[in-house]
Amino acid sequence: MKAVHPPSLATKLLEAFVSQRTSQPLVGDLIEQYARGRSRAWYWRQVFLAVVISAYREVRMRKLQTISAILIGYVTAMSLCYFTTSLAARFVGGYKAYLVFLPLTFFSAAASGWIVRRSHPRPMVVIWAGFCVVASAVAFAVYAWLPIIDRMPVPILAFFVAVDFIIGPLGVLAGGLWGSSGADIALIRHPPETL
Prior knowledge:
By secondary structure, this protein is mostly helical. It contains 9 helices and no strands.
């Protein structure tokens, strides 16, 4: 059997967002299957499924912590986003402001993901990112029902789509990944996770 290295980012995501009790044996099994000839797409698909299933189990088992993670993530992200973009809007005007808002929004989402990861079990970051996507889909459905989108210029609409469906969730996951490095504070505060 030849030594083959699976996608390291996928492995890091699995280790960061799936409960430790599940992720350690799963990583070993996936690496073994990958070394036997499975494709990179197969490896990524297995990691994605493991992360989603782990998050789903967390929602079912820990409803109160799920609500807590969403509230903490929302308050953190919205507060930081409002503060930073309001401050930036004082110095930059017009469409250029939207280009400045993108990294500020990413930073705000990453900070919320970091805080959720440090204060809650691992899968809660994925739950928070998923909530962002679902809430954005609901908001866009409401906007489509109301006559607001008809009056919104296409570049601004594209900006909101990018922020809500790409920048925000990726920022949350990046912050959660960053929050998973170093000491695991969530394990100190909560008992070991079971699946």
